[in-house]
């Protein structure tokens, strides 16, 4: 389809420019339009210029109904519960995965299943019947993990085709809330600067209250998206915290509200994190939803893939990542049962 090869961002901005000229729209309307574009870049974790006009929202028909929910204490509570009693090896960064190449003789009387060998940066090796790859798409794109034999062309093409951009955050802890506690979020519109439209454009209220223990105190989280997120990662933490405070004071001090300095801060820079190299996936120009399916396909009997970038109907979501894990657990269990029944699993 022609629209699959067009840029969503370029088409949106071209259309707006035509309407702005025809309607003699004031700069304020353009600034508001850019705020909505920043919000769209937040939803896709990338610059709109790289998104496919025809495919960027291909998963929308499968969205779940209902409200968004924030988990008191953070999502780590879910992870901790699911990981209970599982052996987890920290400090073992995987660098290489050797797996059995798919063979044509894998019938009931085929050769014994060879299993996989996973090699870590510290030199340790793990051997198993199968490996489930759940590293972020950004890590696969970076080539931080090598595979032997190399991944099939269809999967490699999907890895290269899908987008994987950046959404960053500034987390600020204050002595006490100074903002309106009745709202979950509030926004900030940048004036006359398209490239910085995504810088601190949205703030999330994570303050602890008697009713909701979302965090340990008076916490605000500022979002940074699009081109501004790429610039953000090149700035120092002290600079971005100072800039965030300038925005907050610009919002509140004109209303007579004193904004205190934060007592602690942290910046989430996913683009430079060696275990992520980005935030979550999207469909870039030329890609389609089929690329998610290609990334989800197992390779032979030993190599399986899960994660949000393998979920065509629910990409870029935590529930999509969870569902993909359930899918692959079932797939691996069934395949290992078949191999064992055929006498092809090593004892």
> How many domains is the backbone divided into?
2
The major beta sheet can be summarized as:
5 strands, antiparallel
Helical residue percent band: 25-40%
CATH topology title of the largest domain:
Polyamine Oxidase, Chain A, domain 2
Order of helices and strands: HHHEEEEHEHEEEEEHHEEHEH
Compute the CA-based radius of gyration.
23 Å
What is the overall pLDDT average?
93
Instruction: Give the quaternary arrangement of the chains.
Output: single chain
What is the terminal separation in angstroms?
51 Å
Instruction: Give the strand content.
Output: 15-25%
Q: How many strand units?
A: 13
Proper CATH architecture of the largest domain: Alpha-Beta Complex
Shape: globular
Highest-level CATH class of the largest domain: Alpha Beta
Structural class: alpha+beta
What is the count of helical runs?
9
The low-confidence parts are: none
Strand order of the largest sheet: 8-9-10-7-11
Structural write-up:
It is a single chain. With 347 residues, the chain is α+β, with helices and mostly antiparallel strands. It has two domains: 1-52 and 166-279, Polyamine Oxidase, Chain A, domain 2 (Alpha-Beta Complex); 88-163 and 284-341, FAD/NAD(P)-binding domain, CATH 3.50.50.60. 32% of the residues lie in helices and 16% in strands. The chain is built from nine helices and 13 strands. The strands form four sheets. A five-stranded antiparallel β-sheet has the order 8-9-10-7-11, sandwiched between helices. It has a four-stranded mixed β-sheet with strand order 3-2-1-5, with no helix packed on it. The radius of gyration is 23 Å and the shape is globular. The mean pLDDT is 93.
């Amino acid at each position: 389809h022609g629209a699959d090869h067009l840029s969503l961002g370029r088409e949106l901005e071209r259309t707006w420019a035509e309407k702005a000229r025809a309607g003699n729209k004031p700069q304020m309307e353009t600034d508001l339009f850019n705020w909505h574009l920043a919000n769209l870049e937040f939803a896709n974790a990338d610059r709109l210029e790289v998104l496919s006009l025809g495919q960027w929202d291909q998963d929308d028909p499968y969205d779940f109904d209902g409200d968004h929910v924030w988990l008191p204490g953070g999502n780590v509570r879910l992870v901790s519960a699911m990981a209970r009693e599982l052996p987890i090896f920290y400090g073992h960064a995987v660098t290489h995965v050797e797996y059995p190449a798919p063979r044509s003789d894998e019938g009931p009387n085929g050769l014994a299943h060879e299993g996989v060998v996973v090699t870590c940066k510290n030199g340790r090796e793990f051997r198993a019947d199968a490996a489930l790859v759940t590293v972020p798409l950004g890590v696969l794109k970076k080539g931080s993990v090598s595979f032997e034999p190399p991944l099939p062309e269809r999967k490699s093409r999907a890895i290269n085709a899908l987008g994987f951009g950046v959404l960053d955050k500034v987390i600020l802890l204050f002595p006490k809330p100074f903002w309106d506690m009745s709202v979950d979020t509030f926004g900030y519109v940048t004036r006359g600067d398209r490239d910085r439209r995504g810088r601190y454009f949205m703030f999330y209220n994570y303050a602890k209250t008697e009713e909701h223990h979302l965090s340990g105190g008076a916490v605000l989280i500022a979002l940074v998206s699009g081109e501004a997120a790429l610039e953000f990662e090149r700035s120092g933490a002290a600079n971005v915290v100072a800039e965030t405070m300038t925005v907050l004071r610009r919002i509140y001090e004109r209303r007579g509200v004193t904004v205190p300095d934060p007592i602690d801060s942290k910046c989430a820079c996913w683009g430079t994190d060696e275990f992520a190299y980005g935030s979550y996936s999207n469909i870039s120009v030329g890609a389609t939803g089929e690329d998610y399916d290609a990334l989800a396909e197992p390779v032979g009997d030993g190599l399986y893939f899960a994660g949000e970038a393998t979920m065509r109907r629910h990409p870029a979501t935590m529930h999509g990542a969870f569902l993909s894990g359930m899918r692959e657990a079932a797939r691996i269990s069934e395949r290992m049962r078949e191999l064992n029944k055929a006498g092809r699993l090593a004892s």
